[in-house]
Write a structure and sequence with these properties.
The protein is of the alpha/beta class and 412 residues long. The protein contains 13 helices and 18 strands. Bound molecules: aspartic acid (ASP) and magnesium ion. Aspartic acid binds at residues 9-10, 41-42, 47, 73, 136-137, 151-155.
Length: 412
């Protein structure tokens, strides 16, 4: 029998009624002849509540016990989903991560899936089970302790199962009906895309579009899992949602597929550092040791052996970055006149695989922003992305005008 993976996020299993509604969708696929693996999240809000309980009990908690507590939300929904399916006459049973087993690393609270041996579940399908309901987000470490995969991790569970069982497709049911050209709350002209390439989705996910956990997209790309994002609140149809797949020619025709943004960025400038071999390592080494996620970097021209170095990082890491750099200065590892933090900036990015073959995308982006009187503070590019740092007060204007300039209201 062909296997289908269906993942239901927290809002899709938030109440017993919604679990019933999701179970009906599962029943439709079983009727089509699929063996179905259902991956469930915890009921919406549950994981946050569990994390809160852990923090309240033990602020410097033992991560193994954090995982023991925080993984439990998914156990509840897995059992309830199996019961609901049984009530509908569909042969189903629940599986916790360790029962499959979902083998992970021992990086508690942020573990990676290493292997999912398919034998146990396949054997049950052979005995007539039609649906395996698996608790998402959790696994078991080499020492036999329960692990979790990081927030949003059940997306990754779903893709990993689709790869391990060579599923025909992995359907991610969520509270939005697909992937949009930009955030519909910012531009009313945002359009749902019917298809998007893995690479574009990976950029969008890491740039702040929260539909899918970034790691799940990486996995899907590596194992060529056909991934579909759709809403459990819409009527089922073959046209529903967005398909994340290998790139196709048609996708290259549009220079830009989406405008992403991240609101809380900071621009940090080290004024007048010595321009000598090893200086970048001396600056970014301590930042990385301090856990600062540096994104864009520019080194300005050098005059009389000194230069300014600018980088961006999330606003909530500014204090950590300042501490690390001031310590490096006190140790004599680096030397600068001043460290200037601009915490009122945001990042706006245009993403599209068409950029590889079409020229003029960057020029059009910069012209659009300048026509709106928006000053660009930092620019960074990759093969399929152009990001700019601008004043935060222009975020909405920039997103809307770029969406218009690249005619994304016509995207399909
Ligand atoms: N329940 C977990 C979380 O809220 C995992 C998930 O839903 O993907 O992060
Ligand atoms: Mg999610």
């Amino acid at each position: 029998m062909p296997v289908l993976v269906m993942k239901f996020g927290g809002t899709s299993v938030a109440t017993l009624d919604r679990i019933k509604r999701a179970a009906k969708r599962v029943g439709l696929e079983v009727a089509k002849g699929y063996d179905v693996i259902v991956i469930v999240s915890a009921m919406s809000g549950k994981t946050n509540e569990l994390v809160g309980w852990v923090n309240e009990t033990s602020p410097l908690y033992d991560a193994r016990e954090y995982d023991a507590v925080v993984s439990s939300g998914e156990n509840v929904t897995a059992g309830l989903m199996a019961l609901t399916l049984q009530e509908m006459g569909v042969p189903a049973r629940s599986w916790q991560g360790w029962q499959v087993p979902v083998k992970t690393t021992d990086a508690h609270a942020n573990a990676r899936i290493e292997e999912i041996p398919p034998e146990n579940i396949t054997a049950k399908f052979g005995e007539g089970m039609k649906v395996a309901v698996v608790a998402g987000f959790q696994g078991i470490s080499p020492e036999g302790r329960i692990t979790t995969l990081g927030r949003g991790g059940s997306d990754t569970t779903a893709v990993a199962f689709a790869a391990a069982f060579e599923a025909e497709r992995c359907d991610i049911y969520t509270d939005v009906d697909g992937v949009y050209t930009t955030d519909p709350r910012i531009s009313s002209k945002a359009r749902k895309l019917h298809k998007i390439s893995f690479e574009e989705m990976l950029e969008l996910a890491s740039l702040g579009a929260k539909v899918l956990q970034t790691r799940s997209v990486e996995l899907a790309m590596r194992y060529k899992v056909k991934l579909r994002v759709l809403s459990s609140f819409e009527e089922p149809s073959d046209e529903a949602g967005t398909l994340v797949c290998d790139e196709e020619e048609s996708m290259e025709n549009r220079p830009v597929s989406g405008i992403a943004y991240s609101r809380d960025e900071a621009k940090m400038t080290l004024i007048s550092v010595a321009d000598r071999p090893g200086i970048a390592a001396a600056i970014f080494g301590p930042l990385s040791d301090a856990g600062v996620n540096v994104d864009m970097i520019i080194q300005n021209i050098s005059e009389e052996g000194r230069t300014d170095m600018t980088f961006s990082c999330p606003t909530d890491q500014v204090l950590r970055a300042q501490k690390a750099l001031n310590e490096a200065k006190a140790n004599g590892d680096i030397n600068f006149h001043d460290l200037v933090a601009d915490t009122d900036v945001c990042k706006v990015s245009a993403v599209g695989i068409g950029m590889r073959s079409q020229s003029g995308v960057a020029a059009k982006m910069f012209k659009t922003l300048s026509d709106e009187g928006i000053n660009i503070k930092v620019i960074a590019t990759s093969e399929i992305k152009i990001s700019v740092l601008i004043d935060r007060k222009y975020l909405e204007l920039a997103v809307q005008s770029l969406h218009d300039a690249f005619e994304l209201e016509k995207a399909t």
